[in-house]
């Protein structure tokens, strides 16, 4: 399988915030944003693997900035690291100023997707080769995030999480 760069999976979805998608403060409801991020990340994982992909884990979400009703919201997702059958997908969320078009980063999230065959069995994905400094930073941090996710899910013994342990022993 030929290795791919993050740009091969980059997925950009732009939409606005409607009244039915807001909370009591008239800001975008968190669950609605999670769904938008999941859709963009699923497309990115599919573009990298050219397989059916399923969400295995939501590793991190930060709702840093409330997104008001009427905002133009852009969700950008790209695979940040690929393993055997799983892929980490990094998602950045931006809002756009109505008058000058300036973009502000509102949120970010990290999801794990697994490529599966028609029976739902995990199947191999191409290697990912990062190119830009940001892609390299995200690639390098991905293994400890995978180990943390597996430890929290009870799928890895903490003793085997070498990258994660290294964070505390440096
Ligand atoms: C787009 C959507 O919303 S899809 C709907 C929501 N998602 C789903 O329905 C998925 C339901 N879950 C499943 O089908 C299965 O649990 C799967 C396919 C995710 C994993 O199946 P498993 O039998 O556990 O497979 P297995 O243990 O071999 O793991 C497969 C890969 O996932 C990784 N993985 C599994 N769980 C996690 C986790 N919690 N965090 C990070 N990685 C994980 C494994 O490390 C492995 O990666 P690798 O092959 O790259 O090393």
TrEMBL record:
Hydrolase found in the keyword field: yes
Swiss-Prot/TrEMBL GO biological process terms: acyl-CoA metabolic process
Keywords: Hydrolase
GO cellular component, one term: cytoplasm
CDD domains per the UniProt record, alphabetical: BFIT_BACH
Family note: Belongs to the acyl coenzyme A hydrolase family.
Name this polypeptide is given: Acyl-CoA thioesterase
Species of the source: Maribacter litoralis
